Automatic annotation (TrEMBL):
Keywords recorded for this protein, A-Z: Membrane, Transmembrane, Transmembrane helix
Protein name: Exopolysaccharide biosynthesis protein
Any one Pfam family match given in the protein's UniProt record, by short name: ExoD
PANTHER family listed in its UniProt record: EXOPOLYSACCHARIDE SYNTHESIS PROTEIN (PTHR41795)
Lineage of the organism: Bacteria, Pseudomonadati, Pseudomonadota, Alphaproteobacteria, Caulobacterales
UniProt keyword Signal present: no
The keyword Transmembrane is annotated on this UniProt entry: yes
Transmembrane stretches, start-end: 47-76, 172-205
Length: 213
């Protein structure tokens, strides 16, 4: 009889409970990312990325996106190239997450994220399995790149959360929704940058025209 593939997201657990349990089992000094990985029921990409994404959704946890961005990019990159088990370098595994962070994460997950678990379910699996996992990883990278930019983390964090939950629950609708939000947000940022650049060029040209420069 074949052995279960423990690194895969199967959707047969409560990911909200997993997040809350991190707070409940942590000591006064919090825990390292390596300890968080060790406490997971399974070493799945989706759950790891979701746990790293949740702090970006929690209000008042300043500076978090820049801290979690690198491990999320590493994990999503491994998914993109088809690696079956997640890996993080020792320097990241040894990074400590404070008790305050863990408490806020757990409280936020229980009070604000329950609907993710209630609404999501296995459906449209063609968008959540096989080739779609690599596509989801590409959209995760897109979302994470915009997360680490100052003052732009909320919307891409929602996209990243939807993508992670979609993979955990095998819910293609969530994956598609997360991909759509990530793409739309990245497009909006690019449009703003282009508009600013064109506007700045127009302003310089106008100034030179009236000053004779």
């Amino acid at each position: 009889m074949s052995q279960p593939d423990l690194h895969r997201d199967t959707g047969d657990h409560s990911f909200i409970r997993l997040i809350a349990r991190l707070s409940e089992t942590s000591g006064p000094d919090g825990m390292t990312i390596g300890e968080i990985v060790d406490r997971l029921d399974e070493r799945s990409f989706g759950i790891l990325i979701l746990i790293l994404a949740v702090p970006c959704l929690v209000p008042a946890l300043y500076g978090v996106p820049q801290i979690v961005g690198i491990p999320v990019l590493l994990l999503a990159g491994q998914m993109l190239v088809g690696r079956e088990e997640p890996w993080l370098p020792r320097q990241i595994l040894e990074r400590r997450v404070s008790k305050v962070w863990l408490d806020r994460m757990g409280d936020f997950a229980v009070k604000r994220m329950g609907w993710f678990e209630r609404v999501s379910r296995p459906r449209l699996k063609v968008f959540a399995e096989g080739w779609a996992e690599r596509a989801a990883a590409a959209f995760m990278i897109l979302a994470t790149v915009t997360i680490v930019l100052p003052l732009t983390n909320t919307i891409p964090s929602v996209a990243l959360t939807l993508l992670a939950v979609g993979l955990i629950q095998r819910d293609g609708l969530f994956v598609a929704g997360g991909a759509a939000i990530a793409t739309a947000w990245a497009g909006a940022l690019i449009t703003v940058v282009i508009a600013f650049w064109l506007g700045a060029g127009w302003a310089v040209a106008l100034t030179q025209r009236f000053t004779g420069g």
